[in-house]
Amino acid sequence: MSDRSRKEILAKIRRISSRREFPYDREAVEASVDPRPKGRTLADHVALFCKRQQELGGQVHEAASVTELVDALVRRLSEIQDGPVWVEAGLELGGESILDRLRSAGVPNLNEATEPEDSTLWKQLLADASVGVTGANWLLAETGSVVLVHRPGRPRMLSLLPKHHFVVASVSQLVPNLDEVIPLLERVHADADFAAVTIVTGSSRTADIEKILIKGVHGPQNLEVFLLVGSPT
Prior knowledge:
Blueprint: H1 3-17, H2 26-33, H3 42-55, E1 59-63, H4 66-80, E2 85-88, E3 92-93, E4 96-97, H5 98-104, E5 110-113, H6 122-125, E6 131-134, E7 138-140, E8 145-150, E9 164-170, E10 174-175, H7 178-188, E11 196-200, E12 205-207, E13 213-215, E14 222-228
Parallel strand pairs: 1-14, 2-5, 2-6, 6-9, 7-10, 9-14
Antiparallel strand pairs: 3-4, 7-8, 8-11, 12-13
């Protein structure tokens, strides 16, 4: 490129960038900067989270008690389970062990995701897993996302390798958006056992060159959230 051509291009860029006239509908742009409605109630956030999950092809099973939630979990496992079910180590809701409740309900082939004592890798243990059951740190109402902070007992693979990912959570973990979570993540990051953070927004999906969307290619085929909206007792 000649020096003359370079100067002409730079001159054009300066003229364009110095234009005073705003080329768009200013009111529409300002409205789109933060379109989130203000003053939502908790019920509004629950409804929005459920709506977003539905749009993503997921499901939310609302339960008024831990017993109702476990019943829904057992029912879904009976419908889709075709292999081992792995449950996050120490997963509790309302002070009750989810693994113990599933065992009491007679769910077969249950495994707790305790750290392997030998050199076995998680990808080997979870290679044929049917369902991975985890808790969650936060649920994001505006996007229907699940935020998982990984640690011993909740390996990242547990939410990625099984065919189905089931999340057990309480409405107390529901927040409006990621903005609310960022300051909390900064504190969690300082923990000695901090490993990674995953934000799950629906089942895994990819699209080929023809823009055909395919789900479940490189991760769980579906995400389901079992949400306690009532008292734990």
